[in-house]
Amino acid sequence: MPTFSRSLVWVLALAAAACSDGGAGGGGTGTDPVARVEVTAPSQALTVGSTLQLSAVARSAAGSVIAGRTARWSSSNEQVARISETGLVTAAAPGPVRISASVDGQSGFTDLTITAAVAAVMVVPDTLTLSPGATRQLTATARDAGGTPIANVAIRWESANDAVARVNSEGVVQAVAGGTVQISAVAGTVRGSATVRVSTPPPSALRFTQVWTGALHACAVSTDERAYCWGSNASGSLGQETGETCPGRAGEPTACSTTPRPVAGDLRFKMLALGTRNGNGHTCGITTAGKAYCWGTGAYGELGTGTADDIRRTPAAVVGDRAYTAIVAGDAHTCGLVSDGTVFCWGENTRGQVGSGTTFGDPVPSPAQVSTPARFVSIAAGGNASCGLTAEGKAYCWGNFDGGTNSNVRAPVATQAQSTFRSLSVGGNTFGGHYVCGVTTGGDAVCWGRTSSLAGLGNGTMSSETAVAVTGGGASAAVSAGNDANCILATDGAVRCWGINAYGEAGDGTTTLRERPVPVQGPAFRSVSARWYTCGIGTDGFAYCWGRGDFGALGAAAPDRCQANPNDVAVPCSTRPVRVRGQD
């Protein structure tokens, strides 16, 4: 194509260029002949409609800048790009073009490429769904107003929210967390985008590692160390408002939950304890860091907040900067074990169950150290009594228990059990006798004390000052003494229970009084908790409950109706284990 030359002359600012030139020979004179012309462009590419300022420098044979000379600019194709007398290029159409500058018969040039203006950026795919952690390659194509692809266009990638999905400089998207985000490809001021949806994985099925029963509510710790509770919430013992009601004993609506509800707050628990006073009770727990929290009714100071007559519907920290390794609860008192073997108790002290050696009667709303030189490795509580077990397997008890006499003891005394133990559990309630069951170092289940229920000590007797073997209690892993219900967990996972069984708490499919343990008609278990009804964690990982089920205490639909005697109103119950809701 013939070269078009402008007749207009641009007077070079060579004096300025000479001042900045560092070439050999310094600046040339106006009489020096021009040996070459250098044309400089900030960029070799332009888009249609854009401009670019070029510069030209005349040099002598020695390389010196020659000032005061004039130059003519020309374009090899003015249909593609025009050049002004000052060296300003205006891009007119896509294509290659050479821009030349001539001084005294010598010429220099630069080659430019004019591309179409980007009218749109297309991203493919424009919609996709990824799982967290997955990656996907996106591609972006710049197009002109006619839809024709434009090559060699610089693309910048952006994510509107890196917390949902990130994108690298090559357009590779990585999903991070559930949500929707726009991933954009940007060319200059023009952008295109793709909608990326990151799927939220379905919540893991709820599973529990341990469960504890009270009078009318139960609580469990899940596999992610959160506390869940269900049953009566009349006094806030579930740890949050549920918005659900159940018929009360007189038919009145009572706050409750018929399915496990997470306790309020972002606390992680390793152990819980449930009180049973007046059927409402309180709940306490220790976090994975050992901090104690309590909630529910605190009329006797059993919440440990420093105040009696207190109700907390969400977890409240127990006063004192102590780290506890275990926590247990009776009817209206709570005890915590510290790593050095000392025990602190708080709450009702009418029978000396706090164990501090203080006068009976006054509530103890803050943790008080149990008065004993003995050091314990585990503790237990129930009704108005508490017990501790030493490293040697020796049992000490205090409160409304002393062997079989049920006298009130203000500080721990060694029991007359005449056995050494691996674990202990305290049964009984405010209105009757107290007894202790345990697993001996030989693996036998035994009980001693005095029961207030017709079920007795599991061998047909009602009381004993020394430990007596529970019928069929050999090869035991644990025993749970409640009052209406008592259970043995065998080393093979079988559970055998005994109790009044008016509401099916023995789990054998009947409502017949069981003075001796009978097999529970359910799965194998790895833990069990008995109070007024029974719950356990099966070896299949599911939580099950059985017995009296009003107020949603079973955490599941109760398939049966039970009554203690013909004159009582029949209430929901289950005579066999039923799976707690929310675990499917």
Automatic annotation (TrEMBL):
Residues 33-113, 117-197 form the BIG2 domain. InterPro entries: Big_2, Invasin/intimin_cell_adhesion, Ran_GTPase-activating, RCC1-like_dom, RCC1/BLIP-II, Reg_chr_condens. Pfam families: Big_2, WD40_RLD. GO terms for cellular component: cytoplasm. GO terms for molecular function: guanyl-nucleotide exchange factor activity. Transmembrane segments: none annotated. Keywords: Guanine-nucleotide releasing factor, Repeat, Signal. Residues 1-24 form the signal peptide. PANTHER family: REGULATOR OF CHROMOSOME CONDENSATION. This is BIG2 domain-containing protein.
